[in-house]
Amino acid sequence: MNLYLPRYQAIEQASRRQFLRRIGATAGLLTAPGAFAEALIQTPKQTEGPFYPDKLPLDTDNDLLIINDKLTPAVIARVLEGGQAVCAAAGAPMAGGHSIDSVEPIYGVVALGLVHPDRIKRNSTAQAGDVLILGKPLGIGVFSAALKKGLLSPEDYAAMLDSTTRLNTPGAELAQLDGVHAMTDVTGFGLLGHLLEVCRGSGVSADLRFDDLPFFSHVQELAAQGHTTGASTRNWASYGGEVELPADWPEVRRKLLTDPQTSGGLLVACAPEAADSVLAIFHAQGHTAARRIGSLSAGPARVRVA
Description:
Blueprint: H1 5-18, E1 19-23, E2 27-31, E3 38-42, E4 44-46, E5 62-66, H2 73-89, E6 106-107, E7 111-115, E8 131-134, H3 140-148, H4 154-164, H5 170-174, E9 180-185, H6 190-202, E10 204-208, H7 219-224, H8 230-239, E11 243-244, H9 251-257, E12 266-270, H10 275-284, E13 291-298, E14 303-305
Parallel strand pairs: 4-5, 10-14, 11-14
Antiparallel strand pairs: 1-2, 2-3, 3-7, 5-6, 8-12, 8-13, 9-12, 10-13
Helix pairs in contact: 6-8
């Protein structure tokens, strides 16, 4: 083995030189030899959301779906069909794959793509003076908690399905706008957690107005009845020291801001004059809940909520 070690180390060093940078927690950039572009490689992650055989929850990165080993071959076939259908809708051909034997059957994909270096939108390049726009309503974690207790209405269940299976396709068009300075998606860390990542990376402060945030219908009522997640509490414990809330706020509001999302919306930081164009792109692609939720300013990496 020692004979092969120097060669392996040389290959590893070359690979590291080719790897330019990470983008968030689950994506990175590689140079594309002989091309003007860079390759965007995204890695799978687990989703805690419910699984639907005919609808696949998708983040802008990739969900790793855990399915029950008691499922019949017909249902497993539906899982594969669903994955292929969603990839096709995203414009990504399914190149192939392999199977393994494990205690918990797993289905997942890795997405590879190309992006022009001038059109890469990171979560660390927001600017003071930017406005914040969120592409989807909040409350998936609350809906999931109510669903597990059999207390989610058919109408709310349908709304949850529609949101979690709606691809964040506006991202590609938004990346073409010079006025869009930064983007990320709101997933497991909740709105506050992912906004704080933007603030830390960009060296700015954020201001949010709770009344401007989009929530699913009935989410606030369900949360007030106690249908929240443990992840929401853990999220607050991990970053609550960087958030300023009104002194008289009810705890349920804080839990909504840290509510973990499956396939949450895109969070966009853009110049004020680009806000109308950003909203028009969201609305044209079916993201009708998209709205302006706050702004960024010079200052320490903190989020203030009013």
